[in-house]
Design goal:
Number of strands: 0
CATH superfamily of one domain: Globins
Strand content: under 5%
Helix content: over 70%
Shape: flat
Length: 292
């Protein structure tokens, strides 16, 4: 009985092993049915890698070219205001306080420190010096009113600089604008009345005057070049007219041209003149008398 039981167990174990081997052959027979070379295995691995890379490329978002990215960055920089929004708010709040003497106080600061500016003010006279302070106050008021519009600020400041070309004869110097920018910054900080941090207020006004006076200088030097070109043209026209007048004067006959080229030394000068005129008189036809 024991031998039969052991033999039955062996048969059952052999049958289970055969069934497992048959299942393995059915499932993996396609892969290992034929022997593959190293080249075939390499091709299969390349196909798998390509399929993986294609899948990863599809999963990635589409990227832009470097030129378009840099172009967008440059556009953003151009559109961006040179003064931060917080700084612009500080400047606007400063000018909400009374500032009727802003231009006068600003120019007074330069007047106390620079003798050349004093000479310039004296040469302008009382009325024109007062107009100078009024124009400065009005310029800063307009800039603060349109502080968000960079192009409008630039055009206003350029026209302000162009107006100073005619003041050059009175002793104006472009170097005055450096001191003027510093004085505007100081007066702007004083208008703040310590409502903000002093460092923030100074930074905001410094950025504003930098933006303003860069356009002021551009307008001044552009108008100065145009003025010099016009003066050169006018001088050239004057020279041309003077040359034409002198050339036309040379063509006129003078009495000295009637004298002989080489007078004889035996005849005095007065007699030479009389004899030459006498010869001309004899050669000319005599008019017939009207009344006899």
């Amino acid at each position: 009985m024991g031998n039969r039981a052991s033999s039955d167990r062996r048969k059952s174990s052999e049958e289970t092993c055969k069934s497992k081997s048959v299942q393995d052959l059915k499932s993996g027979g396609r892969d290992f049915g034929k022997s593959q070379s190293m080249v075939d295995l390499g091709r299969a691995s390349k196909r798998k890698k390509n399929s993986i890379s294609m899948g990863s490329d599809k999963s990635r978002p589409p990227t832009r070219n470097g030129s378009t990215v840099t172009r967008q960055k440059s556009i953003r920089r151009d559109i961006q205001h040179p003064i931060a929004a917080s700084g612009r708010e500080i400047i606007v709040q400063c000018f909400e306080n009374p500032h009727s003497e802003f231009g006068n106080k600003t120019c007074q600061r330069i007047f106390e420190k620079r003798p050349d500016f004093q000479n310039y003010v004296f040469s302008l006279g009382k009325e024109r010096a007062y107009q100078m302070t009024v124009k400065l106050k009005e310029l800063v008021e307009e800039v603060v009113l349109r502080i968000d519009d960079v192009d409008t600020i630039a055009s206003m400041c350029r026209s302000y600089g162009e107006d100073h070309v005619e003041l050059k004869s009175a002793g104006f110097k472009p170097d005055f604008w450096v001191a003027l920018a510093d004085a505007i910054t100081v007066e702007g900080v004083i208008l703040d009345m310590a409502n903000h941090q002093p460092a923030d207020t100074v930074a905001a006004w410094s950025q504003l005057v930098t933006m303003m006076f860069s356009s002021v200088r551009d307008g001044y030097y552009t108008a100065l070049r145009q003025h010099r070109m016009n003066s050169r043209r006018s001088n050239g026209m004057k020279r041309q007219t003077t040359n034409e007048s002198t050339s036309s004067g040379d063509q006129c006959i003078s009495p000295t041209s009637l004298l002989p080229d080489r007078p004889s030394p035996l005849i005095p000068g007065s007699m030479r003149m009389s004899t030459s005129l006498y010869g001309m008189e004899n050669s000319m036809p005599k008019p017939t008398p009207i009344f006899e």
